[in-house]
Amino acid sequence: MKKYLNKQLFFETLYKLSIIFASLLLLLIIIFIFFEGVPALKEYGVFKMLFNMSWQPTAHEPSFGLSKMILATIISTLLSLLIAIPIGLLSSVCLVRLVSRKIKNIIMFIVEILAGIPSVIVGFFVLKTIVAFLYQHFYMNIGVSGNSMLAAVFVLALMALPTIITITVKALEAVNPMYTEASLGLGANKIQTIYKVELKAAKSGIMAAIVLGAGRVIGETMAVMLVSGNAINISSNLLLPTRTLTANIATEMSYASGLHQSALYASGIVLFIMIMLINITLLIILNKGGGDNA
Amino acid sequence: MLNHPWQVKLIKILTYLATILLVLLVFWMVSFIIIQGISYLNMTLLKESSSLIITTLMVVFLALLIALPLGIFSAIYLQVYTNNGKLVKMMRFSIDSLNGVPSIIFGLFALSFFIYYLGLNRSIFSASLIMSIVVLPLIIKNTEEAIKTIDIAQIQGSLALGASRFTTINRVIIPYCIDGIINGVILAIGKIVGETAAIMFVIGSASSIPKSFFEPGSTLATKLYLIIQEPTYSSNGIGSAYGIALILLLIVVLLNLLVKLVNHIFMKRRG
Amino acid sequence: MKKFLIIVIGLWLVGCSYQEGLEVSGSTSVAPVMEKLISDYQSNHVANINLTADGSSAGISAALEGVSDIGMSSRALSKDEFNNDIDVNIIGIDAIVVVLNKDNKITNLSIQDLHDIYCGKKNNWQDFGGENIPIVLVSRENGSGTRDAFEDSIKAKDANKASYVDLYNPVIVNSTGAVIENVKQKKGAIGYMSMGSVIQDIKAISLNNYQANKSNVIKKLYPISREFYVISKKNNIKAKTFINYILNEDGQHIIENEGFIRVK
Amino acid sequence: MDNIFDIKNLNLWYGSKHALQGINLRINKQSVVALIGPSGCGKSTFLRCLNRMNDLIVNCHIEGSILFNKVNVNSERYDEINLRKKVGMVFQRPNPFPMSIYENVIYGPKCQGITNKKRLDELVESSLKKAALWEDVKDRLNSSALGLSGGQQQRLCIARAIAMEPDVILMDEPTSALDPIATAKIEKLIIELKANYTIIIVTHSMQQAARISDYTAFFLMGELIEYDKTDIIFANPKNKKTEDYITGRFG
Q1: Best residue in B117, B232, B234, B236 to probe C by mutation, most C CBs within 10 Å?
Q2: Phi, psi of D144 (to 5 degrees)
Q3: Fewer Cβ atoms within 10 A, N terminus or C terminus of chain A?
Q4: What mean pLDDT value characterizes chain B?
Q5: A62 in a domain, yes or no?
Q6: Which CATH architecture fits B40-270?
């Protein structure tokens, strides 16, 4: 019996150690990212880093202003959601209410494939189609090279769609059927029932889908880097190239050293904080809105 | 809005259009890769990318070797040994946030922790370590989902027969949630195969078959990234990029079919 | 279950230890050719040489502090970096070539032209006698030695050595191959790279009417070139033997067929 | 008194289960008809046939004719949306939408294209007055409907149905989820509504049927056993099974 007991004890401590280790990983990541990024933040100053426009890491007195890249990250995320949300919500409604179960399963399989396609392939695809097309047709404009914010937004929209659709479909399916019956009972047709009642009842699920979609998109690196042109500028002309925080890290990391590398880690910290803000807003949405479609 | 028949008709058309557009987009991308890649999918490409496939399998194997036990044990602890106290909520939040961390941040962490701090060299081993961390939340969540679906009666039945929590785990819980674990594994493989940003700083690059875990290497995805950037340096130029992209795409489709198959089998078993 | 744990810990420990040997670190532009030199040297000498590419300044300071046996640099040492217990050797010269799309009729540009192009003063090939196509700048990323040397030569930096180029919508890539790919695909593109990397899909042009060949570069007629330096402590015998190998025939031969210009 | 509903040989199957067998029934205008019977006898299923809510159920097959104002509504050609405009429904559990009281009441009319503000305000006031809820909520029309009590929510659902100006109101055990006081208020309201609506109500409580209905139909195992004036059904029912059920011997 003695041997048996300490075998059980051994495994139960192993279970405990595993979960403790798993939960501390996030902390470990935070520690090391901050550890590497703090020198540049201290040297150049957090305020200047967030709001200064010029990024010249290899100059005599280097400047590590990230504001153009932070803006590019935010703008590309919002614009991609502007495309992904309508398509995502409308197709989710169609899948849950307007098509047969068989068609729905087929399309959901296609959405899962889209979710599974590695971002490097999506970037490659857009590079060889959209970017090439943009240069062929707009090369006469100064500064246009095909690699552009528009191409980046298109890639990010493709990335956001699967996340938004899978979660919206789940939210719509969880809507209490009593609302549907009540609406139909009042002589509303299917479309009115969906858009006036069911979407409202699944509001918190849909908001979670959008926020998760934003989280997925804001952290995208490989696909954006291939198509965005990586020029450090912000412009209302979407055909001009741009550089997001993630692309900045991936482009310059291989040859960066000293303070330059530390500044890249600092842009990683900024990105990390943005992601954490998104996670926290998600938590608030889910807790607050949890009840309305009970 | 939606109070007049023409508005209703318009929205209905838009709803169908959105779905068609979604399907067309995916078909356009997939067919583009297939059409361009199919002509390069021949023996020379398979031979040339054999080192990439082997390296990818090595990363998948080692990452899962670490993440699986860690993930399953963590899921068991979360589902069986804890109530929903404050500490558990914290743990859940940190694992969910870990799941939301972008892969470039994992890349930065891998570079500073494994390479600079621990002094490991840029190798398949370092890439596998970071990938085990990347897929850990996936394994935990899927295993937890599976454990949740076990109806309480079965667990209570086993406990009622005098079995300790530990034997209940081995005899009832783990066998029952095999499909959740398999789902987690398949999704994890999908994530590892397609990953570039998390491992690009720590895996180095190589064009021959690696002899050990501690040599630098190139997976299908990292090599694809290099060739896209520098097609002139690969044997048949951009063609091999299309070839590798097609191989990756086939793997993704295969993995998704596998998930469907596993769910189907276990759905029948669960009745 | 126990077997599995032992394996994992075993893998972890083995990973951490790696053999000591000759440490070579520094410029990312010199690293590729140094890699070839090292593998050739190791094929007939017993030596374990470790190479890291972390930039010229890092290489220079590593050599001065003795952290690395040999420091590589693609820029001359500044006055305060130089001291007399180290010796500095030039192992090769790298000419930086300007490349255009094959359909672009232009065959020659002056340094002033390059300055006007990369500082946004002129943005159409018509200004230089070419077709009416806007110019698309293709540039390397910050930290790349090639970009540093190129922008210094065409004075595309301000007093604080901060580059102007970023303001004119360049396509920024972090590898020579990507420069080639962008120049090859885009009619109006202009890029630059080491002479050795040029391939026939793109067109290298002459600068100030001088082709980038051995004699023009050595005579400094070809305006944009940079020397590859190796820095080592005078008393470091192991480093000295490797450097002598680089400076004699078989070393110089490798440097030449890597597309650089030999010094001996 | 001409009839508003004339049901002839109505049969319904859920997949293979024959839930309603050969129902023949006439329902007069402006009367309250109670449907009683043990649970699972098909009374709710029958009620839902009258506004074709059963169309939502996947493998449900219906035969026979349902004449509504002499027109057979149980056919593909007849648009169920029009039917539901004329035949409102109130459910067992109060299910106001997660919107304001005002928006709940005008939901139906707006779906029909009535968007004129003044017209909608009139409808809201008249419907809430008819549902005896106007006094309670007239100064907080824009507050959320979920804030009301159970009884108030059910009366709001009735008001919502009345706003459609239907001819018939179907009620599926409207008071089973409510406390006795709220139930009494709803019963009093039903009797007042009889003046301008036909009300068909499914109920478990025979006392409720006796109190408020003019006619009562007794269902058992998918068949209509007996249908007659309420006082006849409860005083001396013709069919033995009805008598056993009324006196509580089974069911």
Answers
A1: B232
A2: -70, 140
A3: N
A4: 87
A5: no
A6: Orthogonal Bundle (1.10)
3-state secondary structure of B102: coil
Question: Is residue C200 domain-resident?
Answer: yes
> How high is the mean pLDDT of chain C?
85
Nearest to C208 by CA among C223, C193, C219: C223
CATH classification at residue A118: 1.10.3720.10
Domain count, chain A: 1
Paired strand residues for D202: D35, D172
CB A226 within 8 A of CB A212: no
DSSP C71: E
> Domain containing A206: what range?
67-292
Using CB atoms, pick whichever of A87, A220, A264 lies closest to residue B21: A87
| Contact check, Cβ <8 Å, B229/C16 | no
Burial of C177 (0-12, 13-18, 19+ CB in 10 A): buried
Which SS3 state, helix, strand or coil, does residue B177 take? coil
Q: What is the pLDDT of residues B143-159, one digit of tens each?
A: 988 888 877 777 777 77
**Pair (C125, C206) in one structural domain:** yes
Q: How many CA atoms lie within 13 A of D37 on its CB side?
A: 25
Q: Are residues C22 and C83 in the same domain?
A: yes
| Amino acid type, C89 | N
In order of their start, the domains of chain D are 3-246 (3.40.50.300)
The answer to whether the Cβ–Cβ distance between B229 and C177 falls below 8 Å is yes
Question: How close is the nearest chain D Cα to the Cα of A78, in Å?
Answer: 29
Q: Is D145 helix (H, G, I), strand (E, B) or coil?
A: helix
Task: Give a yes or no: residue A20 inside a domain.
Answer: no
Question: What is the CATH classification number for the domain harbouring C99?
Answer: 3.40.190.10
- Residues of chain D with Cβ-Cβ distance to A185 below 8 Å are 51, 53, 84, 88-89, 91, 161
Record the tokens describing residue B259, joined without a space. 């998930």
**Do chains C and D touch by CB distance (3+ pairs < 8 Å)?**
no
Q: How far apart are CA C142 and CA C124, in angstroms?
A: 25
Query: Model confidence over C173-197: pLDDT tens digits?
Result: 988 888 998 999 999 999 999 887 8
Confidence tier at A294 by pLDDT (50, 70, 90): very low
CA distance B230 to chain C (A): 4
On whether the CB atoms of residues D198 and D30 are closer than 8 A, the answer is yes
Q: With an 8 Å Cβ cutoff, is B1 touching chain D?
A: no
Strands (DSSP E) found in chain D? 3-14, 17-28, 32-36, 60-68, 71-72, 87-90, 168-172, 198-202, 215-220, 223-229
**Angle between helices B124-149 and B178-194 in degrees, nearest 10:** 150
Residue C45 lies in a domain: yes
Domain of residue C233 covers 8-94+227-257
Instruction: Using a CB–CB cutoff of 8 Å, tell me whether C16 touches chain B.
Output: yes
Same domain, C156 and C111: yes
Tell me the C-alpha distance between C242 and C251, whole Å: 9
Does C212 lie in the same domain as C107? yes
**What six digits make up the tokens of B85?**
């106290």
Torsion-angle region of residue C230: left (phi > 0), alpha (psi -120 to 50) or beta? beta
The tokens for C155 are 């004075």
Q: What are the tens digits of pLDDT across the range B189-240?
A: 999 999 999 998 898 887 788 888 888 888 999 989 888 887 776 777 788 8
> ipTM score here?
0.81
CA dist D144 and D151 (Å) reads: 15
Question: How far B205 CA sits from the closest chain C CA (Å)?
Answer: 13
Do both C111 and C38 map to the same domain?
A: no
Is A159 a member of any domain?
yes
Neighbours of D154 (CB within 10 A): 30
* Same-domain status, C31 and C73: yes
Q: Which pair of tokens denotes residue C203?
A: 């067109």
Q: Is residue A51 part of a domain?
A: no
Q: Is B254 on the interface with A (CB under 8 A)?
A: no
Q: How far is CA A72 from the centre of its chain?
A: 14
Residue of A nearest to D91 (CA): A182
